[in-house]
Amino acid sequence: MPEFFKSLDTKSVRAGEPSPRVGGAIVTPIFQTAMFERGDETGYDAIPYIRLNNTPNQIAVAAKLRSLENAEAAVVTASGMAAISTALLTFLSAGDHLLVQDCLYGGTHYLVTDDFAAFGIEFDFVDGTDPGSWADKLRDNTKVMYLETMSNPVLRVPDVKAAAEFARSNGLVSMIDNTFASPINFRPCEVGIDLSLHSATKYLNGHSDIVAGACVGKADLIDKITHRLNHLGGSLDPHAAFLLERGMKTLALRVDRQNSNALFLARTLERNPAVASVSYPGLESHPRYDLARDLFDGFGGMISFELVGGVEAAERFMERARLPINTVSLGGVETVVTRPAITTHSAMDREDRDRLGISDGLLRLSTGIESIEELIEDFKQALN
């Protein structure tokens, strides 16, 4: 179907659909087959095969993502970590060096700090909020700069525009994990970032029923990632691709509600005497509020906060709250909460956690689409 959609709302619903429609089907059918009859394809990567990421369900989802992020190309993967690891290993090899934001999702942190040493890949952490310090870490063998749009779990906001310019000026491939923002709130390629990565398990799918990932960005870079992905094998199966495409049809609606609910909740928490601190980019008290307001169309559904009573109070809150579900993932229609020190970031050294502000009592909240009145009522009773 020709790409003439303008708004993100319309793109969420309509972009990426096969043209002509398969048998007239309004919804892309599930092509539950591993093999396809050969045509006139030339080259290994062009053979139609699920592992080669070129079958109808994979193509439809990738096309929708490309359109939503206003990028040149996209490819979907079996998980967010498959997207992150494949993208990094496409542009890094033995003897190379990586600049990486100092506060990261736990899985990415472990990949960089534990696994890369075996591959002969070196790294330096950088403060994403301090562009003036980046050049000091630059080396002749630096190849990639890696950031998160909103850092997991403390929600720092790096200077993304400065990072895009720094990477371009120094011949680096710039990558950003855009999971927390989603394309509804931020589209990294529009400000010059080369590659936008997602755990599609979260906001893109939004229904807590699949694991998936995605890489979006410049066509030549996505071609290289796809070629490496074809070898590593982290491909998304047809049924999961079907569910992801269906989930993305309501992405704009869901994220708009999650933005609104999170802002109300963050303001409510900030006023509660039982709450010691709140981090949310949409609060004027956030140290990067002005930057977030400049970058984002919405501030997202993620909040992190600490209670006056520390770990004990955090545990009591999770026990008393009726609506938030105690679980480790995020981005779905349900409000969920976790304590990162014992879940997502439990393998990180305590010294590193303390340095980054991930205290034992820190709570990370993913706001769903429930009634904001009921959420606030429940939070107040749990904090009372």
Would you identify the CATH H-level superfamily of the largest domain?
Answer: Type I PLP-dependent aspartate aminotransferase-like (Major domain)
- How would a textbook summarize the main sheet? 7 strands, mixed
Radius of gyration: 21 Å
Mean pLDDT: 95
Report the end-to-end length measured between terminal Cα atoms: 54 Å
* Name of the level-1 CATH class of the largest domain: Alpha Beta
Which structural class best describes the helix and strand composition?
Answer: alpha/beta
User: What would CATH call the architecture of the largest domain?
Assistant: 3-Layer(aba) Sandwich
Helix proportion: 25-40%
Shape: globular
The number of domains is: 2
Low-pLDDT sequence parts: none
Please count the helical segments.
Answer: 13
Number of E-state strands: 12
Give the CATH topology of the largest domain. Answer: Aspartate Aminotransferase, domain 2
Neighbour order of strands in the largest sheet:
1-7-6-5-4-2-3
Following the backbone from N to C, one meets helices and strands in this order, namely HHEHEHEEHEHEEHHHEHEHEEHEH
Strand content: 5-15%
